[in-house]
Hints:
signal; OxRdtase_Mopterin-bd_sf
Amino acid sequence: xxxxxxxxVTPRADWxxxxxxxxGAGALGLAGPAFARIEAKASRFSTDEKPNSFEEIxxxxxxYEFGLDKGDPAQNAGALTVDPWSVExxxxxxxxxxxxxxDILKGVTLxxxxxxxxxxxxxxxxxxxxxxxxxxxxxxxxxxxxxRFVAFETLVRPEEMxxxxxxxxxxxxxxxxxxxxxxxxxxxxxxxxxxxEMPKQNxxxxxxxxxxxxxxxxxxxxxxxxxxxxxxxxxxxxxNAREYGFYSNVNPAVDHPRWSQASERRxxxxxxxxxxxxxxxxxxxxxxxxxxxxQDLSVDF
Length: 301
Ligand code: MTE
C-alpha cells in the first residue's frame, strides 16, 4: 500500500507523476520503494549534500501571493485550486496554445534533482525536486529563431491568494531567463519534491527551478510562458532595480545594497551553526559559467 501524502489531494496528477517515476525507474531495472528509485536515477545532476527535511522545505517559504511571513504560505496555500491547470505558451513559438498540465507531463521524463537553493535573503536549503528539463517543453512548443528571452507568470487568483489582495508586488509575479539559460539542462520545471506532489506552498502544480540563481528567479505556480525578443520585465527588478538585477546569479562578490552575499545560513543547521561560504553560481559554475563569458557580473548582476 502506498503511503498517504500530498498526492491524495490531487489524485489524477499524482497518478501521472507516479506512473512516470515508476516507468523511468523500471527502465533502469531498479527495485525498492519509489523514493529510492528516483534518487538513483537523479545522481548525475544532483548534489550529494544532505537534503533538508520535508518539514523544513514545506514550512519555510517565500510565496508572497500567500503572505509575507515564512509560515504564511503553508498556512494559506491550502485553498489554491491546482487541478485543472493549464500553461499558456505563446510569443515566438511554432505551436502556441493552452497546454493542459496532463498533456505536458505525458511528454516528459520526470527525474529527481537534488539542488541547492540559495535565497537572496541569505539563507539556503537543499531540495530533492521532481521535475523535467524546461528545454523539453520549449522544444515541443517550437522556439522560433527570434526568441531571445523567456518570460514566466504566476497565477493571479485573489479569492484564493490573500497576498494578491494587497499591493506587496505588482501582480502577477513575473520572472524571466535568457534563452540559453532557459535551455540549459540544469533548468527544470518541478512538479514535486521528496517523491511526492508539489506542496502548494512550494509552487504547485508546476514551478521553475534555476539552481545557480537567487531563489526569487524560481517562479512558482506558472500559468504563462512567453518566448520574446526583448528582456522581459520581472517583478523584483520592477520593484527595486538597484537591489535585484535581471540575471541574479548567486555571487558572493556582489553584495546586495543592504547586506553581504558572501555567506549564507543553511536552514535547519541550528542557530549557532557557522554560516556557509556562498559559492559563485551557487556552486554550479562548472556547468554554467560559460553562459556569461565576456559579461561583467557586477554590471549584469
Ligand atoms: N514565486 C512566486 N510566484 N511568488 C513568490 O513570492 N518567491 C520566490 C520564489 N518564487 C516567490 C516565487 C523566492 S524569494 C524564493 S527564495 C523561492 O520561490 C522559494 O521557494 P520555496 O518556498 O519552494 O523554498
